[in-house]
Amino acid sequence: MIRAFRFVSVAEAVSFLLLLLVAMPLKYGADAPVGVQLMGPVHGVLFMAYVGLVFLVREQLGWDLKRTVLALGAAVLPVAPFLVERHWTRPAAEPEPVGRGV
């Protein structure tokens, strides 16, 4: 389930950026609403999947209420799901053993 959440986190963030940086300027700058008509529903589905998956993985990841609320808030910021995926869903790196030189 965590793997699915990580994938959806990245996909949601990418879809949000495409919607903001490509589809919206095309709609209002070039009078071409087709980008928003396509990207809007895709982003909407990924947004709902992200929110649902936050609730499904929070226990597995050991998130408290504060971290869960922050992860949910990340869904409305364009690049925040990248940070959630990168920093809150991966196990901490194990320290390198002492005495092993390069």
Class by alpha and beta content: mainly alpha
Number of strands: 0
Number of helices: 4
Choose one word for the global shape. Answer: elongated
Beta-strand percentage range: under 5%
Average per-residue pLDDT, rounded, comes to 88
C-alpha termini separation: 37 Å
Main pleated-sheet profile? none
The percent of residues in helical segments reads 55-70%
Taking pLDDT < 50 over at least 5 consecutive residues as the criterion, the unreliable ranges are none
What is Rg?
Answer: 17 Å
Total number of domains:
1
> Helix and strand succession?
HHHH
Tell me what the structure shows.
- This protein has four helices and no strands.
- It has 102 residues and is mostly helical.
- It has one domain.
- Helix 1 runs antiparallel to helix 2 (34-57) and helix 1 runs antiparallel to helix 4 (80-88).
- It is elongated.
A few lines on this structure:
The protein is mainly α and 102 residues long.
What's the layout of helices and strands?
Blueprint: H1 2-29, H2 34-57, H3 65-74, H4 80-88
Helix pairs in contact: 1-2, 1-4
